[in-house]
Design brief:
Blueprint: E1 4-7, E2 13-14, E3 18-21, E4 24-27, H1 34-53, H2 57-71, H3 74-95, H4 101-122
Antiparallel strand pairs: 1-4, 2-3, 3-4
Helix pairs in contact: 1-2, 1-4, 2-3, 3-4
Length: 125
């Protein structure tokens, strides 16, 4: 079965048949053909990248984790989990004044770049 992507407001949510990433819902039900699949993947990539642009990497990673679980892509899932952990770590370090705000911004930018690379390398439009 192919994926159907539709516009929907809300956070990253998973139910039995759907994953909602930002404003995009990916459903496992529906017709499948290669062109539609590519268009749907491109739309999902666009929404995931928009979350990074909106400074919402945690929501992007939540969506990626659910997507990679659904696709049974363990390597990409592990990478998303590691990025999520790194974000939490640098947020904790800046809150405890263990690193400067400048270092926090630099570290977060590196994580965001890694997330964008993960999207480009693992989700094929």
């Amino acid at each position: 079965m192919g994926d159907i992507i539709k516009s929907n407001k809300g956070n990253v949510v998973k139910d039995s048949n759907n994953i909602t990433i930002g404003n995009t819902t990916i459903s496992s039900a529906g017709p499948s053909n290669q062109q539609q699949s590519g268009e749907k993947a491109a739309l999902a990539v666009q929404h995931l990248k928009a979350l990074i642009a909106e400074d919402k990497p945690e929501k992007c990673l939540e969506g990626l984790k659910l997507f990679f679980q659904k696709e049974d892509n363990k390597s990409a899932l592990n990478t998303a989990v590691m990025f999520f952990s790194k974000l939490r770590e640098i947020e904790e370090r800046v809150n405890l004044s263990l690193i400067s705000r400048d270092q926090y911004s630099l570290d977060k930018a590196k994580v965001n770049a890694g997330i964008l690379n993960l999207i480009d390398n693992e989700i094929t439009p």
